[in-house]
């Protein structure tokens, strides 16, 4: 009788451990379009790990003290991967879809002048061995050609093509920018994001693109990001920031 009781207690303890697990596993998204899979994986990574944790809403207040300690990409990556408070908040947000914030998909790059100014004034100052040129030469020996190919936004995929578990994806429709949306939409908005077309290497296992994130009149950033498939998911491996506000 006692042995049965011990076995029952052991099983209950295992169940309790599973229930208290604070590791957020993410959600699965599969599509027959391999390029859409890339964009979707990157969108989820950016919103959950890069866009100032705005998708957490008021829950992000619980992270304030810890976020203040993050001062370099390595510490941010470690925080995103293992911080128990963040993992718990992700689980809570994923379970309660009623409070989901919205990221809006844009098909327009609103900061093209950054490319124009960069090419006109700054590109020549980039040494041949600069990190940006080294990154872009993986896709073409002429790195400036790759840079110019990242000038325009992708137009193929719309909000309805994307899927996430911790936030909603919306369309700007007739609006140019998020502050042109209705007040209730602005209140629940994470911001808007646009992606360029992908530039692939010859092996088609590594790519680079430009994304632009706008979350207010003085809130946002634009980066070149390099990515590859890690354990079945497309993941950012290198980045170069072009602008931030």
List keywords for this structure.
single chain, 245 residues, alpha/beta, 9 helices, 36% helix
Précis, in short:
This protein is an alpha/beta fold. It has helices at 2-19, 34-49, 64-67, 73-82, 84-95, 112-122, 131-136, 143-149, 183-187, and strands at residues 102-105, 168-171, 189-195, 199-200, 206-216, 219-230, 233-244.
| Main pleated sheet | 7 strands, mixed
Mean pLDDT: 86
Query: Shape, please?
Result: globular
E-strand count = 7
Helix/strand structural class? alpha/beta
List the secondary-structure elements in sequence, H or E. HHHHHEHHHEHEEEEE
Low-confidence stretches: 5-20
- β-strand amount: 15-25%
How far the N terminus sits from the C terminus, by CA atoms, comes to 68 Å
Number of helices: 9
What percentage of residues falls in helices of 4 or more residues?
A: 25-40%
Q: How many domain modules?
A: 1
Radius of gyration: 21 Å
Write the layout of secondary structure elements.
Elements: H1 2-19, H2 34-49, H3 64-67, H4 73-82, H5 84-95, E1 102-105, H6 112-122, H7 131-136, H8 143-149, E2 168-171, H9 183-187, E3 189-195, E4 199-200, E5 206-216, E6 219-230, E7 233-244
Parallel strand pairs: 1-2, 1-3
Antiparallel strand pairs: 3-5, 4-5, 5-6, 6-7
């Amino acid at each position: 009788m006692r042995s049965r009781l011990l076995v029952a207690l052991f099983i209950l303890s295992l169940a309790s451990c599973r229930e208290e697990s604070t590791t957020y596993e993410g959600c699965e998204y599969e599509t027959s379009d391999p390029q859409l899979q890339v964009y979707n994986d990157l969108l989820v990574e950016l919103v959950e790990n890069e866009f100032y944790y705005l998708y957490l809403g008021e829950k992000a207040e619980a992270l304030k003290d810890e976020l203040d300690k993050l001062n370099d990409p390595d510490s941010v990556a470690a925080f995103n991967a293992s911080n128990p408070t963040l993992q718990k908040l992700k689980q809570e947000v994923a379970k309660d879809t009623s409070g989901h914030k919205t990221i809006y998909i844009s098909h327009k790059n609103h900061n093209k002048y950054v490319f124009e100014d960069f090419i006109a004034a700054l590109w020549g100052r980039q040494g041949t061995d600069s990190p940006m040129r080294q990154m872009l030469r993986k896709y073409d020996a002429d790195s400036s050609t790759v840079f110019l190919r990242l000038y325009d936004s992708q137009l193929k995929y719309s909000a309805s093509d994307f899927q996430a578990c911790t936030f909603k994806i919306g369309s700007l429709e007739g609006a140019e920018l998020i502050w042109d949306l209705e007040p209730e939409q602005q209140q629940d908005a994470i911001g808007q994001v646009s992606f360029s077309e992908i530039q692939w290497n010859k092996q088609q296992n590594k790519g680079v693109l430009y994304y632009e994130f706008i979350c207010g009149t003085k809130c946002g950033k634009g980066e070149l990001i390099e990515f590859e498939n890690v354990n079945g998911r497309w993941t950012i491996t290198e980045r170069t920031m072009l602008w931030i506000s």
